[in-house]
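Title: [Solved] Zeta-carotene desaturase 3D structure

Original question kept below for reference.
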Amino acid sequence: MTKNIIIVGAGPGGLATALRLKGQGYNVEIFESSNRVGGRMRGFQDGDYAFDTGPTILQLPNLYDDLFASAGLKREDYITFTRLEPYTKLRFWDDSTLELTTDFDKLKHQLAAFRQDLPAALDRWYAEETKKYDAGYEPYLSQPARSILGYMRLDELGTGLKFKPWETLYQHFWNAFQDERLVYALSYPAKYLGMHPTLSASVFSLIPYIEMAFGVWHPQGGFRALAQAIAQGFQDLGGKIHLNTPVKQVWLENRQVQGVELENGERIKADTVIVNADFAEAVQTLIPPAAQGKYTDNFFAKKQFSCSTFMLYLGIDKRYDNLPHHQLYLSEHIRKREKPFVNDSALDEIDPPFYVCNPTPVDASNAPEGHSTLYVLVPIPHTGHGVDWEKKAKSYRDLIINRLPLLGFEGVEQHIVSETCYTAENWQNDYSVYLGAVFNLSHNWLQLGPFRPPVRSEYIDKLYWVGGAVHPGSGLMTILESAKNTARFVEEDLVKR
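Solution (posted by the thread starter after getting help):
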């Protein structure tokens, strides 16, 4: 008999899991409260302008090839990827700049201008990271989390020591380059893990290595089109997606999944339920209190969550074709070691670092001819830190608009046709993100691997979780790995029944 699987939420994790399970022959239905798929990646349209709302960086395109292939499909039949070179440009506190690229000759030429020994330092670092990637990605990032004792195997001790877990990410890059510009240029992705480089584990040096080794890509049509592509592949195989259909709760009997109960009171039977939603929010709203186990308000109050983000989505009646797709301004404040700079516990209203995505030069589908869109992101405190955005939003918006020339975006104010602003409250209220912490639980040592919420529910039979809060963590790359492991667990458990 064919098993029936329900997935709650059509974010990238839910969509990827659905496609894999549909490819394995299961009946799979997705129930999504929004009017379109993608979760935080769903994007939006404002007049003639289309915007991505979540991720803007695509790593390891082979993961998407593998995802579609798992269901007998070809990724290129659904979505096209464009490689970005250079993939990120950074401007530092001292007004120097660096363009990150997979072209090592160009990269080394820039580093030599910083200091003559840095090109050789880059070669040494890259060779060492290649060994770490080859030894560590598949067993630690791609595979399901193990028990604590499972990470203490003697035959893997040498591999574990290569990662120097006693080092912070800052120490790792300082030891390699002894130039703070390179330290923060390569360690800044830690911010999207909810960590400052001086607190983040050195294992995350694999992220800048992956970008340097395999490139950074852009899906044509934007990340909203990527979500639609995965959904289309799923539907082409007969999968069903119910939009505008919120789930009230997971239907349980004696801590065993029976299906889901919709907001309208209808109950839908299923052999397995997978929840693709913000974990901290969903476990407290979709699961009856008696079945939540340790995941209570008190549990989450003791955990460390990531920053939120202040977002400006701007439709502009001009083009910035001479400016890169991804740019970062790393201010002097990124180097500070004290609170609130290391934990984003207060709003930086003086010199905040910020990021701008300028997608139109490589993908003109988001704006009319001669126009463009800009995606501006500033790390800010999550809602637990009490910023009054009703009072602060306008002045903070003006601060950021006035700082855009730091990255070459001159005269933006007078060319704005469309403008949308998100604060931490939007992420919390409109996207159901706990505390508006868009990068979920931080990735400190006590919230990694076996200490992170597991894919397979600890308390409820036939319930699974997929997304950035469970192992291996936040980010599209890791969410795709989470989806692969979720589909694997479901297959294993359904075969046993």
